[in-house]
Design a protein that fits this description.
This protein is α/β, with parallel strands linked by helices. The chain is 35% helix and 24% strand. The protein contains eight helices and eleven strands. The longest helix has 14 residues, at 46-59. It starts with a strand and ends in an 8-residue tail after the last helix.
């Protein structure tokens, strides 16, 4: 399964807010064997949201959009997603009923626009906050507040799956450039995916669908690098 993640918000592009939602989603999806092919940040503009969602829904199995939900002036994500499908946004009675019966609100408490979703969307109820999410075909629209986004993703997590990956990390006390020949030989010898991440020492991440092959590759590399002394 191939997925694109789209995060919406001027505050992300301005650097006012760290994009922790994208990192968390990528980690969760990767653990489920899902391949994240794109992570994109777009501003709070309907045209930009619609253009990116329309492009990605044609290219990937699913698109996850976070941020910009609610009734305030800059909450434009539902309008953008609706525009990508050529649909209007309409008030969803199911969302209103859930908020009054389970959310502890009266209809008078809720600002106009709180339950406006793309026409025909499947409602995703917000167990942590107020603004509901939605699923339109293969596009999943989640809140931007991290706690709300995580809770809502858990409600649909089983809809995301792929080939299980096994991961092992080998630490090497050598410069990354010095490891290039051994990493190349590793990839030629074993059917695995390899990533190297420099820092105080180099972490070589080895992953693949077969745990025995991954462990064999890790053992091969450990025998050929300078280990990190603890």
């Amino acid at each position: 399964m191939n997925v694109a993640v789209v995060t919406v918000g001027d505050e992300l592009l301005a650097g006012d807010t760290t994009n922790t939602n994208a990192t968390w989603l990528c980690d969760e999806l990767d653990a489920r064997g899902v391949s994240v092919e794109r992570v994109t940040v777009v501003p709070d503009r309907v045209a930009d949201i619609a253009r990116v969602v329309n492009e990605y829904r044609a290219e990937y199995d699913a698109v996850i959009v976070t941020g910009g939900l609610g009734p305030t002036h800059d909450d434009l994500t539902m309008k953008g997603v609706a525009a990508a499908f050529g649909r209007p946004v309409v008030e969803q009675e199911e969302a209103l009923t859930w908020l009054t019966e389970h959310g502890g609100y009266t209809r008078e408490d809720l600002a106009t626009g709180t339950a406006h979703l793309p026409q025909g969307a499947r409602v995703l109820h917000n167990e942590v906050g107020v603004a509901p999410g939605a699923v339109v075909d293969s596009v999943y629209v989640l809140p931007g507040v991290p706690s709300e986004m995580k809770g809502m993703f858990e409600s649909v997590a089983d809809e995301f799956s792929g080939v299980e990956k096994h991961v092992t990390v080998v630490e090497a006390d050598e410069p990354e450039s010095a490891l290039l020949d051994r990493i190349e030989a590793l990839q030629e010898t074993f059917d695995v995916t390899v990533g190297s991440y420099p820092g105080e020492y180099v972490r070589v991440k080895i992953s693949g669908p077969d745990p025995e092959v991954v462990e064999a590759a890790a053992g091969w590399l450990r025998d050929r690098v300078d280990p990190v002394e603890n």
